[in-house]
Amino acid sequence: MLWKKKKHQLRSDFNTEKVFLAASQPLESVYSYFQTLEIGLTEKQVEKRQSLYGKNEIVHEQKKNPIATFVKAFINPFIGVLTVLVIISFILDVLLASPGEQEWTSIIIVTTMIVFSAILRFFQEWKANASSEALLKMVTNTCCVKRAGNTEYEISIDELVPGDIVMLAAGDMIPADIRIIEAKDLFVSQSTLTGESDAVEKHPQVIGGKYRKGSMVELDNICYMGSNVISGSAKGIAFSTGNNTYLGTIAKSIVGHRAATAFDKGISKVSFLLIRFMLIMVPFVFFVNGLTKGNWLDAFIFAISIAVGLTPEMLPMIVTANLSKGALAMSKKKTIVKDLNAIQNFGAMNILCTDKTGTLTCDQIVLERHINADGSEDKERRILRHAYFNSFFQTGLKNLMDRAILSHVKELSLEYLKDDYKKVDEIPFDFTRRRMSVVVEDQQGKRQIITKGAVEEMLEICSHAEFKGKVHPLTEDLKAQAKRISEEMNHQGMRVLALAHKSFLDKENNFAIEDEREMVLIGYLAFLDPPKQSAAEAIKQLHEYGVEVKVLSGDNDAVVKTIARQVGIDTGTAITGTELARMNEEEKMEAVQKATVFSKLTPMQKVDIIRLLQSQDNTVGFLGDGINDAAALRQSDIGISVDSAVDIAKESADIILLEKDLMVLEDGVLEGRKTFGNINKYIKMTASSNFGNMFSVLAASAFLPFLPMLPIHLLIQNLLYDISQTTIPFDRMDAEYLRKPRKWDASDLSRFMIYIGPISSIFDITTYLVMWYVFSANAPEHQSLFQSGWFIEGLLSQTLIVHMIRTRKIPFIQSRASWPVMTLTFLIMGVGICIPFTSFGASIGLQVLPMEYFWWLVGTLLCYCTLTQLVKVWYIKKFTRWL
Q1: Which of 316, 470, 558, 853 minimizes the number of CB atoms within 10 Å of its CB?
Q2: CA angle at residue 511 from 471 to 431, to 5 degrees?
């Protein structure tokens, strides 16, 4: 039997035989072969098949295994370094040590650091995944099915089962592998599966009956999950769902493999830059201490501890925590992040390209006027009647204007008009013709084709026009008059469609685009979609935050300009798609840079504009919700769609807005910049701090007759510093930082390290001098006092760097960190000061410091903060940037 298959038996190879069998079934036996009925499956059949096959989901959508996620948390370069150090410490301090002299302390501390870092990373990853799954459940893709006892209705795609009758229309994503049984001008894009950009036409039968030749994806009557309907309509039977689909098989082979983004590569560069510093530094410290102190074993252990101190093992956790916190914060502002790494692009975006309808306007289109071709009022409602038939009888994608027509007719209680007519055929809408037609027949057998569409495209197919009740040839004068009537309404902010018909048709069926000719223009439909009150303020705010807004619309240029002016967008440099098509590449480059309003664009022209803007080093976002926006969403650096968008638009987007409102987008941009800023803080703090420590240790190793700190001191100091950094994701960013787009730039990091890092070294060295000369800690028998002094100063200066680097302003005075950062950093500083005064401190070789030391400490830290602030001001003035 066809359905006798367990849901857990996943095959590594796709079952092509099943597809060819599905394609070869004749239409008269197709229902029995797929064990379904024309009226659809019953509830019991659906339940049985759901239990057998599970949800219609492919493998990459399934929840991650917690054990695998936990193990993965241990896999990163820094934890690898620490693990090697633990093994070396175990060999030296335990296996090779004399009986009774085994030392476990450093092993315990480094192991604690490894486990602490991994657990935090696992917790953040798991929380981020759980949050992402919960958020994505708020965005559901649906499909239209027919089931027994019900008319056609929408269900979530994951509820679809084999045998379901599926109805397809323009804009739909194919929800499973489907055998087509009825189709009308069905064109499907299979680019996600084949890479071919051209849409292919699908039919109920394979042309020529060639069921076993050529590629499986070229079968004329099979549509595959993940492809999408460009135009037309169809009915089909789902025969494979979830992992058993062609897309599911591909997903199983590549699950877990994701191409590295620019952000991923940037983080990797930082990681390996710091590891390279460590690999140069550690051998150098080892040889200097070995040569100057003569104890090579102590020098080796100290060098290992330095390696731990220079390893920013919290980097993966801090990045994950920032991204997941950013995604959660954005969800509270009605913005869903499908890919965490998209947050970085959100913060970097400096140009937002947006469609017009629903974003700048209220998305509540109403039919304002229906008038005759001569401009007179349609008092007999003849134009309205024809428009109603066109919108009611079409089976394709009903757009906002269709809904406005149907709503207007319902308000006037004229729905009975359709009862005297039946539909014969239709020619679906597409974005090249920009029109659609239905063929209807009345009870007397009179057949007519009714077409509505964009004015210019409609005038091209009309040979006559009705003026004052009579049909006249459509002369150039009448054509100019028609355009003038349309433009007058356009300038009032109304969108205009033209309506034409052709009666007494000889043809009975199989109408096609060629039949849309020699038609009679009968009137116009004018729709009003007023601008949103919030749009002007949102655009003003986005401009203030360094985001330029450009309108990319397929609508009439007069309407687009009128709406753009009303929301405060400069329309002085507006370009139409026709003008753009006439330009060469150089002219286009200049045009897209200057122009802010683009109208009458084709879908591929939107892609072209985004590509040209990207080539000029812009980070471009695109906000769209229609099938004609899918290609532009994929091309943009950050594709933004809305929950009410067509399936393919939501699938192509990185970010989904639960409200189609630019004010919501502004919040998302700010959150993206805040997230990126906090990640950058940690990277620059860690890099500069580690670079400074390198100089400090080199100086101490070269001139001191003893180790400046024992390995255990360095490990504890590093553990406390790491803990103080864990609250950085909860820090705030200065308002000035949020006002500009922020791009990832690794080139600035090495410069930052070189200029800022050595500042801490200056005060480490002054602390050496104070301990040596003021407190006479200048001999091996006094090394405990020296080490205690540097332990506290080193920890406090490292922790203070958090507050110094997090803002370009004066810390604590002009800009204060958030309370979690303030609380934890000062708590860690307090713990560090107390350790030498405790029995634990004594057990690791630290001792109580004289009270006079703390006056020197306060002076050192104040001078450190002052010098850092002065260098910061000079650095910002010289390089015009900080974070």
Answers
A1: 470
A2: 85
> What is the pLDDT at residue 254?
43
**How many angstroms separate the Cα of 276 from the Cα of each of 313, 690, 827?**
15, 12, 32
Helix (H) or strand (E) holding 236: strand 228-240
Per residue in 577-603, pLDDT (tens digit) is 889 989 999 999 999 999 999 988 887
Return the structure tokens found at 434: 């920009």
Residue 235: count other Cβ atoms within 10 Å of its Cβ. Answer: 21
pLDDT value for 749:
79
d(CA 753, CA 749): 6
The count of C-alpha atoms lying within 13 angstroms of the C-alpha of 18, restricted to the half-sphere facing its C-beta, is 20
Give 195's DSSP letter.
-
pLDDT band at 261 (very low <50, low <70, confident <90, very high): low
Residue identified by tokens 């409602």 is 381
pLDDT in tens, 416-429: 999 999 999 888 87
Q: Which residue has the tokens 């599926």?
A: 166
Q: Are 404 and 366 in contact (CB under 8 A)?
A: yes
Closest CA to 538 of 551, 530, 529, 549: 549
**Would you say 764 and 825 are in contact if contact means Cβ atoms under 8 Å apart?**
no
Give the residue numbers marked as catalytic: 355
Alpha helices in 177-222 (DSSP H): 191-194
* CA-based torsion, 168, 169, 175, 178: positive or negative: positive
pTM for the whole structure: 0.70
* Rg over CA atoms, the chain: 35
One-letter amino acid identity for 22?
A
Judged by DSSP in three states, 635 sits in helix
